[in-house]
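Whiteboard transcription, Tuesday session. T.W. wrote the structure tokens on the left side:
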């Protein structure tokens, strides 16, 4: 099924590139090489937010709180999260999909942003899915958008996970 995988990947890459060029015009980006396929894919060069009053370092909690509050939606963050969650599910091996669904394995989306992947994973597998993020703003917005799921403010870098237990950890674009 390697050929089928490559066809699906190429199809999704082209869709992403079209969407990227049409709608997701970030101030700066470059093309990078996907190490698994040696094909070029778009990569965002993230720096500080454009707000001159904002001196938050990229990937700090303060940076992401501000990003989720001010421009996550206008920069198509929800759409990107959904897009990559859909690709992740589509490209999962069929044995893993069957295992998750049949055994009702629990899933936690680490770095869940506003919760779109949590919803997609739950809808796909009909199992318990929760989300964590270190951004308080993201967790509040996820709870408001998807009140049927559990969301927790946790920092995986600081190993703030001792009270959580899941069968599968899902991470995308973290």
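and on the right, the sequence the group agreed on:
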């Amino acid at each position: 099924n390697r050929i089928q995988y490559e066809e699906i990947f190429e199809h999704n890459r082209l869709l992403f590139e079209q969407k990227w060029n049409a709608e997701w015009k970030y101030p700066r980006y470059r093309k990078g090489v996907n190490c698994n396929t040696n094909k070029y894919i778009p990569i965002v060069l993230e720096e500080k937010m454009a707000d001159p009053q904002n001196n938050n370092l990229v990937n700090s909690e303060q940076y992401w709180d501000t990003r989720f509050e001010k421009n996550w939606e206008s920069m198509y963050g929800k759409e990107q999260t959904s897009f990559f969650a859909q690709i992740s599910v589509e490209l999962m091996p069929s044995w893993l999909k069957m295992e998750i669904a049949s055994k009702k394995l629990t899933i936690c989306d680490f770095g869940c942003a506003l919760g779109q992947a949590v919803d997609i994973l739950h809808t796909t597998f009909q199992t318990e899915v929760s989300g964590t993020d270190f951004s308080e703003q993201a967790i509040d917005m996820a709870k408001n958008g998807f009140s049927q799921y559990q969301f927790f403010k946790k920092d995986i870098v600081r190993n703030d996970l001792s009270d959580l237990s899941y069968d599968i950890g899902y991470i995308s674009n973290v």
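Someone added at the bottom: Strands lie at 29-34, 39-44, 107-110, 129-133, 150-153, 168-170.
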